[in-house]
From TrEMBL:
GO molecular function: DNA binding; transposase activity
Protein name (Swiss-Prot/TrEMBL): Transposase, IS4 family protein
BP terms from Gene Ontology: DNA transposition
Record-linked Pfam families: DDE_Tnp_1 (PF01609)
Length: 232
């Protein structure tokens, strides 16, 4: 009985933590968008993955901030393909729709007050399996090519973040004050920018450049060690 109570309490805590964590992520995205607008940054699209594709975020971006978005959706999101179906609450899962080949359709996501363009993109993996990406776009005149091509640009941001963490020690700051932490983060961003300049010149990605530097450093250290041994 005690074990059952522990498992039950742990499950409740995990669910509460997951809900709070998701809420924090959603709030951070809205805060970043608002900050970009306050700083008068010019941008045409807000691109986001599944974690940020809530109806609240979509409404805030499109209706409150008057910006367009393209967001990835889970396969179980419910959608109505006509205004009549929406009024009668006849919704269908995205993965149960009959999708036209490389064409976007207009639909109403459940809980969303305005229509969006929906696109389905199929990827072929190296092992022969298929990956499917569902996208929602707020610009109703956008076609399949425009939606998928624009959303693909988001991947470069993912590569940038990965390089920040892996090659520039972005998350490993020993600093404790806000000022020194900000300096560390800025220095990491500058380091990745310089690595990108080297990437263009050397035709190597960030990880290949890092490997070459490590190999060079290890070889120099080994040669120095051999010199110490010879002198001993």
């Amino acid at each position: 009985m005690i074990l059952k109570d522990i498992i039950s309490n742990f499950s409740q805590l995990y669910v509460k933590f997951s809900l709070v964590n998701h809420s924090v992520k959603r709030h951070r995205e809205l805060l970043m968008i608002d900050t970009c607008l306050q700083n008068q940054l010019k941008f045409s699209w807000v691109l986001a993955d599944i974690w940020f594709a809530s109806t609240e975020n979509m409404e805030h971006i499109k209706q409150t901030r008057q910006k367009d978005f393209i967001m990835a959706l889970k396969s179980n999101r419910l959608v109505a393909l006509s205004e009549a179906d929406r009024k009668k609450k006849r919704y269908t899962r995205l993965d149960q729709l009959e999708w036209p080949e490389q064409e976007a359709v207009t639909g109403w996501l459940k809980g969303l007050d305005f229509p969006v363009r929906l696109a389905r993109q199929v990827f072929k993996n190296k092992d022969g399996s298929e990956g499917i990406l569902y996208l929602a776009c707020s610009k109703l005149e956008a076609e399949w090519d425009k939606i998928t091509t624009t959303y693909q640009k988001r991947w470069k941001v993912e590569v940038f973040h990965k390089s920040l963490k892996s090659n520039a020690a972005f998350a490993k700051s020993p600093a404790h004050t806000a000022r020194t932490q900000a300096n560390h983060l800025f220095a990491s961003i500058v380091a990745v920018f310089k690595m990108e300049c080297l990437t263009v010149r050397k035709k190597l990605n960030h990880f290949a450049l890092k490997s070459k530097l490590y190999i060079k450093a290890i070889r120099t250290a080994f040669d120095e060690l051999q010199a110490f041994r010879a002198a001993a």
